[in-house]
Amino acid sequence: MERETADGFSVVAIVVSMIAVLFGVVAMGLTWRGKTASAQDTGSTSATSSKPVGTVTLADFRIALDKSPIPAGDVALKVTNKGPSPHNLTIEGLGQTPTLPPGESTVLRLGKLEAGSYTWFCSISGHREAGMQGTFTVDGVAGSATVATKAAPGAISASDAIDNAHEAVVKQFLSGPPAKTAGLGGVPLVPTIENGTKIFNLTTKIVQWEVSPGRVYEAWTYNGTVPGPEIRVKQGETVKVRIKNELPQSTSIHFHGVEVDDNRQDGVTFVTQDPIKPGQSYEYTLTPINCGSHMYHSHHAADGQVPLGLLGAFIVDCTTTPIPAFAAHDSEYTEILTDGPLGFGINGKGFPATAPVITKPGEKTLIRFMNEGLIIHPMHLHGHRMLVIAKDGNFLPAPYEVDTLNVAPGERYDVVVTSIHPGAWAFHCHILTHAESDVGLHGMTTVWIVKP
Q1: Distances (CA, A) of 423 to 93, 169, 362, 428, 451
Q2: To pair with 68 at 20 to 30 A between CA atoms, which of 100, 259, 422, 432?
Q3: Which CATH superfamily is 192-450 part of?
Q4: Residue 41 pLDDT more than 70?
Q5: Which residue ranges make up each domain of the chain?
Q6: Which residue would you say has higher pLDDT here, 85 or 8?
Q7: Is the distance from CB of 86 to CB of 343 less than 8 angstroms?
């Protein structure tokens, strides 16, 4: 039998309520530390500057407003995506919601609106053309708002809208350079020379990083880019890496896969070194024993710092390890795979801002895959085979051919591709939600271009 409290509530009910509150607090603490920095992301239903005075429903491909009146004044709209595809709501000249996955809601705060007619639409490519646009009217008299949504003249079908969205993004990519975004990651870092020793200087800092056109996020970086600059050294040479920490949090650097005989250089806080606190500098001295494709990244609060951008390529050119004939190549590309709060990307960018691989028939191209993400990525190349020649910096005694290669977190694979068939060939992660949707190719996608 349950004991009753003086107020009539059972002890069991009180315990259940306390557990629910505890789980709510824990859930709040598990959210990503990264967040979008777009000025148009209006984001939160918890803000209290104004209560929603209207409810907007997004669907494929229409916008609907409930019957609640919208008087002139301080206007906020609760926006819910009830369609099967991602949508946003853009009020021309006033603001825009984030892109909402199916089932998600947000509040769009428009501030004080005067009486008049306002245009709204979904700005995702092809959706407005499919009829996802209209107007709503705000009247100066409370309770007299009206709404009118109508298809655009010559509106197209939902199927055609999906086709058009795909076509637009691919044509943009193939017509010239990748879509323009601010910042370029993975650029080789030129060392300074002190007493005959190469010094690579890194500064950790927070920047606003544009992953693809209009998608800007807060990133934690080495030298202001994602990925950080490429560090390239020779097997057996002694180099120094100096880091200055301008983050609000301690950090460190681990040289992933690099074999050294001094564990003090391994970069794991409280195992091999103290944390590098905000404002401090630190110097690592490395003499790589092994060669190959390796990485560097934070090893302090790494679950947050690495997905936010503290990562880069560390390539050690072979000088004493024999290079087998099957590793011969004419050109090379490094592809660092990332996921998490910055989205799905290759070298810090999402399609159509990813860089294509450009070759010609007969050319042998080395691709260095490096997975700095949190999940596996099966990379798939259309029209060609990849000869897998090395794993984690080690040449394989028996190379093998694939068209899809699983790259797990922390793994590095070197592959050589001999370009044969002219044309543009898709090159992407084959977890399809990482690469393609009904609005076209995105994220972890690029194109292998063989020029005749």
Answers
A1: 42, 18, 13, 16, 6
A2: 100
A3: Cupredoxins -  blue copper proteins (2.60.40.420)
A4: no
A5: 54-156, 192-450
A6: 85
A7: no
Query: For residue 151, which amino acid is it?
Result: A
Q: Are 59 and 83 spatial neighbours (Cβ–Cβ below 8 Å)? A: yes
Average pLDDT over residues 175-194: 94
317-370 residue pLDDT tens: 999 999 999 999 999 999 999 999 999 999 999 999 999 999 999 999 999 999
Three-state SS letters, the chain:
CCCECCCCCEHHHHHHHHHHHHHHHHHHHCCCCCCECCCCECCCCCCCCCCCCEEEEEECCEEEECCCCCECEEEEEEEEECCCCCECCEECCCEECCCECCCCEEEEEEEEECCEEEEEECCCCCCCCCCCEEEEEEECCCCCCEEEECCCCCCCCHHHHHHHHHHHHHHHHHCCCCCCCCCCCCCECCCEEECCEEEEEEEEEEEEEEEECCEEEEEEEECCECCCCEEEEECCCCEEEEEEECCCCCECCEEECCCCCCHHHCCCECCCECCECCCCEEEEEECCCCCEEEEEECCCCHHHHCCCCCEEEEEEECCCCCCCHHHCCCEEEEEEEECCCCCCEECCECECCCCCEEECCCCEEEEEEEECCCCCEEEEECCCCEEEEEECCEEEEEEEEECEEEECCCCEEEEEEECCCCEEEEEEECCHHHCEECCEECECEEEEEECC
What distance in Å separates the CA atoms of residue 306 and residue 299, rounded to the nearest whole number? 8
Type of residue numbered 386: M
Same fold flag, 54-156 and 192-450: yes
Average pLDDT for 301-327: 97
